[in-house]
Amino acid sequence: MRSPAARVVRGAKARTLRIIGGSWRGRTWRFPEGDIRPTPDRVRETLFNWLAPGIAGVRCLDLFAGSGALGLECASRGAQQVVLVESHPRAAAALRELLRRLDGAPASVVQDDWQEALARLGAASFDLVLLDPPFDAGLLPRAVAAVLRVLRPGGLLYVESGQALAPAQLAAWPADLLRSGRAGAVFFHLLRTRAC
Predict the structure, then answer these.
(1) For the whole model, what pTM was predicted?
(2) Where are the domains of the chain?
(3) What gap in Å lies between CA 135 and CA 103, rounded to an integer?
């Protein structure tokens, strides 16, 4: 969820997020200054409407966690396990502090490069992967290919990008597009991996 070219918004209010559903509904937190691009409330609300009621009990990976908005929303809604991967030290530290305050959260933070973190995770160990790499870094094709190893067959893959996924791109992935939407410059897609 980090973007090198993210638009800088000034002020603490601009860096404040709230959980929109589940047991922590209404809880707010601030994320560090920098190039973090949180998933907008409107997109999160749509995504979790698509996923409801299937979040309870799932194992979730938020690979480019940034502010933690997506992974924390999963934890609030009853996910069994949430792993938040974030490479930026300040963002990872802020997520750890937030989880400490949310005592008992079924979540953990891994501060590492996304590829290194994925290499240490078990095969087919997640039911849902949230994938929101920096839009302008060209990581999406490599990240999708890499997460397929840790996503169970028939699992769900959420992809956020700066443009709609092309039909040829979708055809190359062993997954079926279930839903897609757009909010401003954010395109979002929910896919289900095909069982082998």
Answers:
(1) 0.87
(2) 13-193
(3) 33
